[in-house]
Write a structure and sequence with these properties.
The structure is a homodimer. The first copy, chain A, is mostly helical. The first copy, chain A, contains 9 helices and no strands. In chain A, helix 8 packs antiparallel against helix 9. The radius of gyration of chain A is 20 Å and the shape is elongated. The structure holds a DNA duplex. Chains A, B: It holds the Pfam family TetR_N. Chains A, B: InterPro entries: DNA-bd_HTH_TetR-type_CS (IPR023772), Homeodomain-like_sf (IPR009057), HTH-type_TetR-like_transc_reg (IPR050109), HTH_TetR (IPR001647), Rv0078-like_C (IPR049484).
DNA sequence: ATAAACATACAGGCGGCATGCATGCAAGAA
DNA sequence: TTCTTGCATGCATGCCGCCTGTATGTTTAT
């Protein structure tokens, strides 16, 4: 059987304008928020017209979704890379935690993923986007730590969700000018203590 | 000296339409979100015209602010009441925690205060609104518990912020159908653990 | 009469869609 | 091989309905 029946004419150009739109949208969404950014602004910054935007994306939300997706993938990659280096579950969890907080210091990520994201896409969708990836490392680490300490009846699933929220808030606090070391220490305290019977 | 130089003609009627607008807006904001709700819809539901809305509120955001404010006050009252009954700091904190989670089960509060609020008003303003009130009980409890257990060098301020975030997420999870008992247990675990040296 | 409380009318802008044009790819004919 | 025909993709332009905020007019209470 032949693959690529229709080889997509002009794929490069298409990808280029898509990327330009996503990049321009990202900058404006970060600067002025989703609601405060108009599609004319976006296409002007990208050097195209609104026709191109609505050719590539179903609507303004879909464009935001693409931006958020890109950001979430970058964060997940950072965690994956940092966690994979340390094989013991406990160390991997710690490394992943620090990696998450540092990945979220990239300007705009907190606004995109934690502030505008839930309101625009709904909390559920942005959870599937961000948490599902980032929380995996956390859960594995918690399960390992719980098994080690012999605490078997912990509500691990719930703890993962709540600790994820604490992570998010720590990222926001750090970007708002909070002392990173202080919040990292507080997160360590919470994680370590979460698995104590 | 005379007070009330201008006696505010028709204060009752004014308050009534204000209340009607806030109530109608609350219902629609909860049902369709802030962005998905138009001012024509709101005034139609309230039985007035847009003129009345813009007479009482500077803009649509100000109306949302009034709604969120009302909600935050109700939550704070619930916590205050529950916490005041138990005078020992530890008990007060526990009672306040449960009170918070139950107050947030009132339909729409999570969306208003935790999802749309930060995006519409900014994370900072909604923090001053909600957290400042709710977090006070939490901080006093943590300080008392830390003093009791002899752990003096805990980053209490940071822990309060992070635990508040966990509370918020617990409220969201519970409204989304999560098991309340499980999340309450997980929160207890986190709080108890936060003060362990 | 005077000022508040509201209603009405208007202006600017935005989001989404439909239409139109241009460019490239594929395949058959010469 | 080259040319040309057919067609889908990529994108620009114009339009429509709606919404927000304001300015102006009208009623009502004091």
């Amino acid at each position: 059987m032949q693959e690529r029946l229709r080889p997509r004419p002009n794929r490069e150009r298409s990808d280029a304008t898509r990327a330009a739109l996503v990049a321009a949208a990202r900058a404006l969404f970060v600067e002025k928020g989703y609601a405060g950014t108009s599609t004319p602004e976006i296409v002007a910054a990208a050097g195209v017209t609104r026709g191109a935007l609505y050719h590539h994306f179903e609507d303004k939300r879909a464009l935001f979704r693409a931006v958020a997706n890109q950001e979430a993938i970058a964060v997940a990659d950072a965690i994956e890379t940092a966690a994979a280096a340390d094989s013991p579950a406990g160390d991997a969890m710690l490394a992943g935690s620090v990696a998450y907080l540092e990945a979220m210091t990239v300007p705009g990520r907190t606004r995109l993923l934690l502030t505008d994201g839930p309101a625009v896409l709904g909390a559920a969708e942005v959870s599937d986007l961000d948490d599902a990836n980032a929380a995996r490392t956390l859960r594995e680490g918690l399960e390992a730590a719980a098994a080690e300490s012999g605490a078997s009846d912990l509500p691990i699933q719930a703890l993962v969700v709540l600790l994820s929220a604490a992570f998010d808030r720590a990222a926001i606090a750090i970007e708002a000018g909070g002392n990173p070391a202080e919040f990292k220490a507080a997160m360590q305290q919470l994680i370590r203590a979460a698995t104590i019977a």
